[in-house]
Amino acid sequence: MFELCEATLQSIAQAFASGELTSLELTLRYLERIADIDREGPALNSVLEINPDAVDIAEALDREYAQKGPCGPLHGVPVLIKDNINTRDKMHTSAGSLALADNYAAFDAHIVTRLREAGAVILGKANLTELANFLTQGMRNGFSSRGGAVLNPYGKDLDVGGSSAGSAAAVAANLCAVAVGTETSGSILCPANWNGIVGVKPTKGLVSRTGIIPICTAQDTAGPLARTVADAAALLTVLAGADPDDPATGSIAPYCHDFTGFLDPQGLRGMRVGVSRTNLERLPKEHQVLAERAFAALEQAGAVTVDAPLPKYNSDWASSILLFEFRQCLNAYLATCPDPGVRTLAELIDFNNADSERCLQYGQSIALEAQHRTSGTLTEPGYLRNRARTLRESRARVDSLLREHNLSCIAMAGWNDIPPSSGYPAITVPIGVGADTGHPIGLTFIGTAFAEPTLFRAAYSFEQFFGGRVVPPLGS
After folding, report:
1. Spatial separation of the C-alpha atoms in residues 194 and 442, rounded to whole Å
2. Residue 449: burial class (beta carbons within 10 Å; 0-12, 13-18, 19+)
3. Of 469, 433, 450, 467, whose CA–CA distance to 265 is shortest?
4. Measured between alpha carbons, how far is residue 202 from residues 73, 206, 326, 429 in Å?
5. Of 180, 148, 181, nearest to 164 (Cα)?
6. Beta bridge partners of 79
7. How far is CA 405 from CA 312, 469, 470, in A?
8. Cα–Cα distance between 425 and 446 in angstroms, integer?
9. Which of 161, 209, 227 is nearest to 188 (CA)?
10. Helix crossing, 345-354 with 365-373: angle to 10°?
11. How many CB atoms sit inside 10 A of residue 198's CB?
12. pLDDT digits (tens, 9 = 90+) for 62-104
């Protein structure tokens, strides 16, 4: 029987081609695992909703495969997507909010259209930190009023990360082949690190944001979550592309590649990689040990490493561009929905207040700040100055280090807020689990704009040499 645990896109494609496996069988087996592990057993709670048409879609794709062969690189592959991404089907798009629990999208997100055209089976919607972690301060990572709390597959008491917690946990626990998350400020890189998987935060503009419940146009993006760098590269190849409805993707064609073509096991040989230790003292000792092993492995794999401290970009959320844009962006999204239940951020706040026992376990402090301290017109001098300053300073911190030391990329343990605030790409790769807690962590490669090919070379080469992915006990 086909080995489902740690199945890759390549192994799935080979099993389809040989007749060993069908999309229907693969979809059914993932649904069984969701029943056994996500809803019962350890009850990870990572999957918020199942696509009721998934089995029928898989059967139809099997017929198409038999008649014409694969229609695209993800033909018959079950994919989970974060529940802030539109699907025009029988599933809701709620961002985990009870206020949006009955929202049916009027159209597929652009990336969902690309997934369907590539042959993917949209298996379901993944749970997340509510409103992509922009409802309130102090909310538990992975918690939503609609879906409850996502648990980490490596231990129920471990941080699952946010906000793409459900997508990451489901991939880690082998509940799907790959998943799609979104990031505004760490929401792909953080849960990828904490769940022992690969996460890619693309350059802003490489992947369309149309049909994604937003926080901030300045920083929002979607990206892959996978168990291997190769699978992440294959998924990004599908997701990346121009969208006439998203101006950030204009003139993007030269940067849209088959990213699997950059997967060179010798890719680190001779590459100059900056090593940043600026955040190590904030990490647990067990993660510091793993980080130093990973840094040493870069050299052993052939890289030339240079000390390149990359400081965190300290942005106060209360005056950040995210806060100023949230109200305007959310109201604009809600205007596209046929009957979302609430039409504005103000109405969402009122809905939560009216059902506070269910909706406000952690409060809604950020939503209140966004509603009452911002105009929704993006004309505040503080916003205009902060947007310019954030972009200039965060990009300068990366580009100056790359230029000063003639580096291809920068590597650090864990993650920081430089990639989202700069709009620059990053890929995180597992480097193991802590000896005491069993909590995973990753090594994150950061580059300048549209440096995805370089980052994939580095990440894949490192992964092949280091092999840091540890399967959680319930993953098999």
Report:
1. 8
2. middle
3. 467
4. 20, 6, 21, 14
5. 181
6. 122, 178
7. 19, 30, 33
8. 6
9. 161
10. 140
11. 28
12. 999 999 999 999 999 999 999 999 999 999 999 999 999 999 9
The β-bridge relationship of strands 198-201 and 221-226 is: antiparallel
Nearest to 76 by CA among 36, 23, 133, 147: 23
Distance of CA 296 to the CA centre of its chain: 27
- Of 187, 320, 408, 461, the catalytic one is 187
For residue 11 the two structure tokens come to 């192994």
Q: What is the DSSP letter of 299?
A: H
Domains of the chain: 9-264+426-431+446-475 (3.90.1300.10), 319-383 (no CATH)
Name the residue type at position 172: A
Residue 159 tokens, joined: 């941080």
Amino acid at 39: R
| CB count in 10 Å sphere of residue 35 | 13
pLDDT in tens, 87-96: 999 999 999 9
Contact 138, 366 (CB under 8 A): no
pLDDT recorded at residue 469:
98
Phi-psi sector, 418: left (phi>0), alpha (psi -120 to 50), beta: alpha
- Chain length of the chain: 476
Alpha-carbon gap, residue 316 to 329, rounded angstroms = 20
CA atoms within 13 A on the CB side of 316: 5
What does the block give as tokens for 380? 């505040």
Residue pair 129/118 in contact (Cβ under 8 Å)? The answer is: no
**Euclidean distance between the first and final Cα of the chain, in Å?**
14
Which residues in the chain come in under a pLDDT of 50?
none
The two tokens of residue 411 are 């590597």
Tokens representing 327 are 């109200």
What is the value of pTM for the model shown? 0.98
Look-up of token digits 């343990």: 413
Residue-level pLDDT at 81? 98
163 is catalytic: yes
What 3-state DSSP class applies to 440? strand
Which of 82, 125, 201, 204 does the annotation list as catalytic?
82
What does the angle CA 216 – CA 193 – CA 367 come to, to the nearest 5 degrees?
A: 30
151 Cβ partners below 8 Å, 6+ apart? 42, 43, 44, 45, 46, 142, 160, 169
Give strand ranges (E) for 143-206.
143-144, 148-149, 178-183, 198-201
Whether 97 is a known active-site residue: answer no
Task: Count Cα atoms within 13 angstroms, Cβ side, for 59.
Answer: 5
- Verify whether residue 400 is a known catalytic residue: no
pLDDT at residue 312, rounded to an integer: 78
Catalytic residue (choose from 94, 144, 163, 315): 163
